[in-house]
């Protein structure tokens, strides 16, 4: 293991040693503009986030709820390109030295060229990709590319994922396993599904990879509950919504920083 794949592993291991869950946050690249998205991303990393996911906007984000769909639409209307996603990764990494992942549907990367994308992501300091719609059985091209560039390949497991499929995706994945806290699209929820704890236990039965839980975690209280049984807590829609609801980009960045600080404190209550 080398490069920023090692950085990702070390970051998760350090959180475990500190008896807390790592905080993983998310922001859509190019939202509300490229520069504003970079500012919000850096604010999160400077306010307690251990790792950040940069969303690659897609015209048909079928797995995302209305908040991230809206952010994607705004970014695409603004003319965001993959070069802007790579720039966001580069500037976030260079400013903070923390792991930066890209969250993307497979089609844009496939069309861009897996080798081209992987090479540019690695050169920018990226730690890897989360590819929620890429079946393990069809992932060989990307996994080979990722391995050449020391990038993580993170697969998503859902409560409905069979034990056999869990063994397949954990054997193929690197970095960590993304455990979906509930069935359905991303979004802000009033409560975290009780299925999350069961899914984490099932994943840990078949792999030693860290297990990070996301989808539906909306506030510090929910993050604190998940931090008691997960290696990482992933918060996305709540942070994007903070930017959407803000009167201007500067206010959005300030709110994102404040929310990230609250979430970070909550994940530190990992011990019973």
From TrEMBL:
Superkingdom of origin: Bacteria
Pathway in which this enzyme or protein is active: Amino-acid biosynthesis; L-tryptophan biosynthesis; L-tryptophan from chorismate: step 5/5
Pfam families xrefs: Trp_syntA
Enzyme Commission code(s) on record: 4.2.1.20
Catalytic activity, reaction form: (1S,2R)-1-C-(indol-3-yl)glycerol 3-phosphate + L-serine = D-glyceraldehyde 3-phosphate + L-tryptophan + H2O
Keywords of this entry: Amino-acid biosynthesis, Aromatic amino acid biosynthesis, Lyase, Tryptophan biosynthesis
Active site: 53 (proton acceptor), 64 (proton acceptor)
Broadest EC class assigned to this enzyme: lyase
Signal peptide: none
PANTHER family per the UniProt record, alphabetical: TRYPTOPHAN SYNTHASE ALPHA CHAIN, CHLOROPLASTIC, TRYPTOPHAN SYNTHASE, ALPHA CHAIN
Function summary: The alpha subunit is responsible for the aldol cleavage of indoleglycerol phosphate to indole and glyceraldehyde 3-phosphate.
Assembly notes: Tetramer of two alpha and two beta chains.
The family this protein is said to belong to: Belongs to the TrpA family.
Name used for this protein in its record: Tryptophan synthase alpha chain
Organism this protein belongs to: Microbispora siamensis
